[in-house]
Design a protein that fits this description.
It is built from 5 helices and 2 strands. It has 162 residues and is mostly helical. It has a two-stranded parallel ribbon with strand order 1-2.
Length: 162
């Protein structure tokens, strides 16, 4: 993984910790980029009952994901490393899988998003634990906020699927 050009980076974390956390964040960044593309796909292709509600909610989700992408990339830079930027790298490093451009009904759309949010919840917990073990409260704090949102949104998606 490439380091950034930070001279005399002294933020209270040793280089091994910063590198390990940055690697984990680059996987997280890859997942966010795949999620962002999927949310747009679903936003454009959802059909059927509750179209307006789901279409609007998907826009909220991808707007929030866009903000997270920027924050995670900037966190990697603040740790002294470079974020991944190539689509091929995102696809190669992501735990999430792309989906086809086709019609999706409301329930299928919600199930796809819920599955990805569940994956992100589990990954977020792992990186929070890693960051806390390494003394990186900045990364842990950022991710704890994301975790709360994924848990809340997952509950809401499950309620809509009931």
């Amino acid at each position: 993984m490439e380091k950034s050009r930070n001279i005399n980076l002294n933020i209270g974390l040793n280089e091994n910790a910063r590198e390990e956390i940055s690697k984990a964040l680059n996987v997280y960044l890859s997942n966010l980029q795949i999620l962002y593309a999927k949310l747009h796909n679903l936003h454009w292709n959802v059909e059927g009952q509750n179209f307006f509600k789901i279409h609007e909610k998907l826009e909220e989700f991808y707007d929030a994901t866009s903000e997270q992408i920027d924050e995670v990339a900037e966190r990697i830079l603040s740790l002294g490393y470079r974020p991944l930027v190539k689509l091929s790298e995102y696809s190669e490093n992501s735990d999430l899988k792309e989906i086809e451009s086709r019609a999706y009904d409301g329930s299928e759309t919600l199930e796809v998003v819920l599955e990805d949010f569940t994956t992100l919840i589990n990954e977020t917990r792992k990186i929070i634990k890693l960051a806390q073990e390494k003394g990186d409260e900045g990364t842990a704090d950022m991710l704890i906020g994301y975790l709360k949102e994924y848990e809340k949104n997952s509950w809401m998606l499950r309620a809509m699927l009931s």
